[in-house]
Amino acid sequence: MKAPKKKTAAAAVAGGGALLHHKAIATQEFGTVRRTLPIAIDADARQRTVQLLNQVLADTMTLRDLYKKHHWQVSGPAFYQLHLLFDKHFEEQSELVDTLAERIQTLGGISLAMAHDVAETTRIPRPPRDREEAAVQISRLLEAHQIILTECREFARQASEDGDEGTNDLLISDVVRTGETQVWFLNEHVV
User: Fold this and answer.
1) What does the alpha-carbon distance between residue 47 and residue 45 come to, in Å, rounded to a whole number?
2) What DSSP string runs through 39-77?
3) pLDDT in tens, 3-32
4) Is residue 79 packed enough to be buried (19+ CB in 10 Å), middle (13-18) or exposed (0-12)?
5) Neighbours of 37 (CB within 10 A)
6) Rg, C-alpha atoms of the chain
7) Which residues contact 187 (CB under 8 A, 6 or more apart)?
8) Structural domains for the chain
């Protein structure tokens, strides 16, 4: 008597079978970069940059989520204006998250993607679950921006020293300029 044939993953899906609890060997480990990538930046420099960009990514994802938290929980006399402002800034931060993650992938690395990894990596303090006054929300957002702006300026210099002008440009032209504008809008509410 013949042993039954094992179905491959592709055969199971093609045959309409559910593919649950499927495990696979990683095609690339987190924290590594593809060694051969013809973009004229050596692997060691790309490795350093990917690590720095993942930090900015984690912090930007946290800032993005702070904006959404405050958008949902804002109250008080400036409710409507802040509700709209926080949502606008959330959308802009969401675009930065995607741009940062794609740059990491372009450099041959792997970007952070899951909330628990972001929570372990971010330098931005975790806010309470409670609703806070608008002034406290704004202060928290300004502090988060300051963390990101400080690290981006430092990381941009490192990227430039490593010959990675693309990352330098992304950090300065996109992350820093967006952050500075958002800080300006937030800060005008506390003056």
Assistant:
1) 5
2) SSS-HHHHHHHHHHHHHHHHHHHHHHHHHHHHHHH--ST
3) 555 555 555 555 566 778 888 888 898 988
4) exposed
5) 15
6) 21
7) 142
8) 42-187 (1.20.1260.10)
